[in-house]
Amino acid sequence: MPPRRAGVPVRLVPEQGSTSNDPMDVTATPMETLLKWFQSFKPPTLKGTESAIYCESCLDDIEMLFESLDYTDECRVKLIGHQLHEVAKTKRALEHRGTEITWKVFKAEFYQRLFPVSYRKDKGAEFANLKQGQLNIEEYMAKFSKLLRYTPHVAENDEVIADQFINGLNPDIFTLVNTGRLNNFADALNRAKGAEAGLSKQ
Q1: Does this model's pTM top 0.85?
Q2: pLDDT for 110-119, tens place per residue?
Q3: What ranges in 40-102 are assigned the alpha helix state H?
Q4: By C-alpha distance, which of 196, 82, 83 is closest to 139?
Q5: Cβ neighbour number for residue 31 with a 10 Å cutoff
Q6: DSSP H/E element including 144
Q7: Distance from the Cα of residue 88 to its chain's centroid
Q8: Which domains, from first to last, does the chain contain?
Q9: Mapping DSSP to helix (H, G, I), strand (E, B) and coil, where does residue 2 land?
Q10: With contact defined as beta carbons under 8 Å apart, do 165 and 151 qualify?
Q11: 91 or 13: which carries more pLDDT confidence?
């Protein structure tokens, strides 16, 4: 069967003919039950021969499914190993360094391994120079988040992320957001959305 086409919205109900409605196996562990339910949505499975860009799109699809199902970081790290070929290498590398494997740490390491240095440098430069321009806040946030994955040195520091996001805002929104102390990146994003809404009413 050919690999699932990346970019297709993830279904929020199991595939027809899936076993998700079968009688529950009382001998199954909680993780086995969770895995069976997750795979009933037919998330993409990669063998390791696909292009890096295709793998990136598939990981985006899987993450969207994780978000829809409200899975914790711990569940995401465990379940992703059943879908992506490179995960075992990525997890072993992190474990060898004694790194705590959160979902955020895993993604940063995965992209480091998946894409060549030249590609990541280009994306890092694009991120450093990113401006809101004609984008609304939601569109700017989506592009900002997509490029952030290529800059793990920034992704590890919430305060730096917030500063980078604010500095790329259009001047009118920047002025409204950059007042007073910001607690974190989420606070900066909420202020930007509020500023945009306020300006649209004027």
Answers
A1: no
A2: 787 778 888 8
A3: 52-69, 73-80, 87-96
A4: 196
A5: 12
A6: helix 137-148
A7: 19
A8: 30-115 (no CATH), 119-201 (1.10.1200)
A9: coil
A10: no
A11: 91
